[in-house]
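Contributing new records

If you add data, match the layout below exactly. Sequence lines come first and carry their own label; structure lines follow with theirs. Keep one chain per record. Anything else will be rejected by the validation script.
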Amino acid sequence: MSRMLGKVAIITGGNAGIGEAVAKRVAAEGGLVVITGRRQAELDRVVLDIESKGGHALAVAGSVADEAHARDTVATALKTFGRIDGLVNNAGVGDFGKRIHETDDATWANVIDVNVTGVLRMTRAVVPHMLKQGRGSIVNISSIASVVGIPALPAYAASKGAVDALTRAIAVDYAQDGIRCNVVNPGLIDTPMAAPLMANPEQLAPILTHYLLKRPGKPEEVASMVLYLLSDEAAWVTGGTYMIDGGMTAW
């Protein structure tokens, strides 16, 4: 259990759901973790849990919609741990339940700013340091909504399609510098974001008919794939799109 031994990883949205699971898994594998998120109390809870198990973590509260936050997170990671080996762009928001004619400009702008421009900001802040090191791994968290039509979430789907494309662009631009970039596309995962759906069996049941494995995924299952892509086990892996969706996109 030491695939990330001595390596430093920044995980955005590390205060809950997939981000929390990734942070805990990286720490359990010997990594040094920097988590970000908008809610300080939740960040503190995750840090305390990691440290109680002998891991090392610190939190930087803020939003990826803030350019200064991206710079501060990187500066804090470097000051504390001296290097940055991995970045997981996980922070995201949704626009669930709105069709395109019901989506106003403010909703669209917020989703794109966090889900796409947030990836740009964090990656732009981290890459110069990875260039100096001559290596690094960036993992972006997208969604199956980038490749299949899902009702009533146009801004979210558009943002995740952009994340997929941005991932490939980063991979192409920095492969010669030793920096890898891949994207993970989860299906329905049992996270706080999905809590209203999970609590409504009548809505959940028909959705699960589209999943070959007939259940939602767990954040820890996504974390396993992210850990692989961050680690040296994936040294020959870049520019890839990895579905983790219980077979939903196999239809």
